[in-house]
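Internal tracking record. Fields below are filled automatically when a chain is submitted to the structure queue. Please do not edit lines marked as system-generated. If the sequence contains nonstandard residues, flag them in the REMARKS field before resubmitting.
Queue: standard
Priority: normal
Entity type: single polypeptide chain
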Amino acid sequence: MTLTRLAVASFAGIVLLSSPPVHARQEDDFKKRVDLAVDKGVEWIRGLDSMKKVQENPKEAVEYFIPCYRSHWLGEFAALTLLVAGVEPGDPLLKALIEAVNLAPWRDTYNVALRACIYAILLDKNPDDGDSFIRLALTMKFLIETQLPNGRWSYGFGYLPGGSDKAYQPTASATVIDKNVRAATQALTDFGVKLRDEMRKMKKDAADLKEATLSLAIRREGKLSTALTHGDYSNSQFAALGLLAASRSRLRLAPGVFARLQLPGTCVESALSTWLADQESDGGWSYTSRREDFSTGRTAYGSMTCGGLFAIESLKRVADGVDPKGLSVNDAKKLKAAVDLVGRASDKAARWIGDHFKVDANPDAAKIWEESSTSLFLYYYLFSLERAASHGKREKFGKSDWYGEGAAYILKAQESDGGWPAETFIKDEEERAKKTPKERQLISTGFSILFLRRATAKIAPPDVATPGGGKKR
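SYSTEM-GENERATED OUTPUT FOLLOWS
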């Protein structure tokens, strides 16, 4: 071999040894595409008129969202999306959104569950943030006290006739928050008493109404929805997300204080038991229970099954951190029995997701809701898929790479202005959603960013030592 050929061969060998493998370069390129898409999505959100108004005057933020579809949680949703995207809390828009969230009423499962996620991330960024700590504990209290007797969650206080002004603010303030455990505990107790009183009134109102039209009630074939009084598995999966995020507060609460939050016993066991009882024989879940008249004919579909898998595993995780000594013997037995069933139920649900896996449609949703569009609740479903996978540390469902396939679809679907196309809602909700098309797109854009950034890992608490010793996820 000549010296020239030897030199060329040696140089080629160095290049091969020093260059990253092809798959590594592909992963790096894919990550750059994801980062760029998220950045463009954030800029799209910043450009919304409602966001500009929030930044100018956070105190009136609730007013800006009132005309919008899903107005009751858009502020929380936008704040969570920006946090997960990597925007720092000191950013002017995010700071204004957090202020608006703190000022807005506590009125329903969705907006309080999303608040729990916000405060959990803020507390993770700054462990000495006393304000976020007590607010996070308050979200747990709210979710515990607003759970329905059957173990599910419904929309909350703002959805009964004349209930648009029925929204409640905890009495805790920044003066109470500053590491004063006794004052914080009293605030939690007072808030709980207030919530229990209001829940009693709400249940009585609902019982008296019977055939009256409920605000936002869903009418199918002339039958009034019982979802408001019996709960549903959309609200309930977000309640599970909120409880998971709120369980971070136990890392800062003394054991005796945490026990006074009454978790779990009646709360987690009741939620787990009803999720498990309503799982279909094929492993999936529907929007409501087959055991109730409202759900006659309903069967499992994608977003509810992914939400169910996440819910039972996250509730199990919340239960793992609770000292059984704080429970009655009967409650401890019931909780253990429910927890012991989670593994098998999870396996069945994961198989259902693998067998029905899609990223360009919410599996079976259009059929169940008797709609023609394949984009029915599509991005909502993708975030449900992310939660089920990320929390369970799953790389695949069946043979499907959920993140690779889902992210590829989301990247392709992003529009040139940085937003994502609006998903389709059921006919009953379409007309209202069309009135504010950009805010409607905020929902699909936010869910896309939450998926791309694997939001659940940022929301869930870290592994902690349990009362029985050892570590739990």
